[in-house]
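Minimal example, chain plus flavin-adenine dinucleotide.
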Amino acid sequence: MSPPVRRIVTYDEIPHSVDVVVVGAGMAGISAALSLASRGTSVAVIEKGIVSGEQSCRNWGWCRQQNRDPRELPLAQLALRIWRDLNRQTGEETGFRETGLVYASNKAADIATWEKWGRIAQEFGVDTRMLSSAEAKEKLPGNSRSWLGGVYSPTDGRAEPELAVAALAKAAMAAGATIVQNCAVRSFETSAGRISGVVTERGLIRCQAVLVAGGAWSGMLLRHHGVKFLQASVKSTSFYTKAAEAVTEGGIFTPDVTLRRRLDGGYTIGLSGQGQLQITPWGLLQAKAFWRTFQIRRKGLTYSIGRSFFDGPESMAKWRADSVSPFERIRILDPEPDPHLLAKGVRKLQEYYPALTGITVAQSWGGIVDSTPDAIPVISPVQSRPGLFITSGFSGHGFGIGPGAGQLAADLIRGDGPSVDPKPFRYERMIDGTDLGKPGML
Ligand SMILES: Cc1cc2nc3c(=O)[nH]c(=O)nc-3n(C[C@H](O)[C@H](O)[C@H](O)COP(=O)(O)OP(=O)(O)OC[C@H]3O[C@@H](n4cnc5c(N)ncnc54)[C@H](O)[C@@H]3O)c2cc1C
């Protein structure tokens, strides 16, 4: 079942020629398009399904600095500065509210990790406050448990995945971007070694640059052109509830369950650290690169082999520019939610919050989280392919960081001074491995 998403009307016709074609209309692609169009660059976003139909409408809606990999912190801070003004800038409701986020745990290891992270975060000026057991109890009114401790980040917030990307897409079109839905990009064209166009299922668009923002599909499109992009996917299960008593206005993380208050008074619920690893041909081929991540996450994983083995983004599919591509066969990646995780989430929610007993699940869904081996994105040109850029591999963090990532991608494409240091996000780390660090905070 798909989560709710605000549908928007876009263009029917592809343009003949633009400066930049963006592949994919999720948070990464749309935020980059908005930033490009706002600076006068002509840009077309080509989306195989609908705007925000995949990960960007399936996430929990947390916009945070808290517990981010330090390499991502400047980008997260930039993103929050942008989020704070987005409702005004777009004239639309993105759902962003600076509510603060609370993390609580009974595991000494979690508290130690947060303490260590807090010392690093202070160097970046992030407001993060450790909570004693009593303070954690106080910060979580109505929660039936006692906690060893926690951490609170008052300047973090939450937004509505259902609304936010649609709001940015409308603003991008108002700034001059063309967005076309239901139209897959099949391949790129080059001329004298440079990107010169993209072939879509509706024809050719001439351009000087392509930005691959295809979420879980980016690796497949790049592999098709001989560009190695290490990317692994895990399925996660989430649901949202009908409006209920307010136990928080922001987001709460516990080791079992996360909850985030929605604009409509309900809650979006996730299962912390739990997911399903779908066994796929590419998954097996690149397993070595993801071994460290797997070791950290394996306790929360189950395994399956299904349709994704044969025709998902990690299958071995081959296609030609004049034939139907895998992107047209799966317009929207919409995996089934796991019923066991769903039942567990409802049980834990009511156990922690007795006031929510009898709460009604309005909708549940599965979502594919795509990750890089070091769990931070690639936002970068590909040096060996002039005109080719990537913004992908957001590793479960790309919604909150999205507006900042879009600005950085636009800086790099235009050759403007970068808003934050782009080095941690450079593509070539996947090839030379020199600064392919270990996964930080997963
Ligand atoms: C359950 C869950 C919870 C999460 N919680 C959070 C959270 O609380 N906070 C946070 O910051 N992040 C969170 N995330 C992560 C966040 O949702 C993603 O990092 C982010 O949405 C990625 O955006 P994207 O644009 O890269 O990918 P997507 O949103 O998946 O967009 C990619 C788009 O590209 C299109 N596409 C692909 N290939 C082609 C092609 N060849 N031609 C045309 N179109 C193509 C796809 O159809 C898709 O629409 C969560 C993710 C999940 C699944």
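The mean pLDDT is 94. The two ends are 26 Å apart (CA to CA).
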